[in-house]
Amino acid sequence: MKKVLTVLTLLFITVNTYSQEHSTKNNTEDTTCKCKKISNTPVTVAAHYPEGKAAFNEAFLNEFKIPNLPEGTKELTFTVQFNVETDGSLTNFTLTNCMNDIAGKQAITILQKMKWTPAMQGEKVIKSLHRLPFTINVPK
């Protein structure tokens, strides 16, 4: 318990939810999914880890190992963006603002193993985009 509290701290979990819109104009145009922020129909339940934030933090911290870092490094910060699919799986990971690629890739590996509760729009389960910033304190 002391190790978890002193070694790592996970802060500032925020959520941005987006729906998917497919382009289907003609075969010569890009037909990949493009994210569009939901404005007309509100998301009634945002995608989330089923057991809550505290359980997510514990599950993540139990798996995360601090990589070798330059002397004097006090914290690691990075943001992982991903889709929460309608089945709760996590896909399409993007790592941003990352101070250490090894730590960021390790976080993605941990997240890939997790299942989340997907977002809801009324009674409909929807695919959503989730942005998860991390701040991890490094022990001295």
UniProtKB/TrEMBL annotation:
<protein>
    <recommendedName>
        <fullName>TonB C-terminal domain-containing protein</fullName>
    </recommendedName>
</protein>
<feature type="signal peptide">
    <location>
        <begin position="1"/>
        <end position="19"/>
    </location>
</feature>
<keyword id="KW-0732">Signal</keyword>
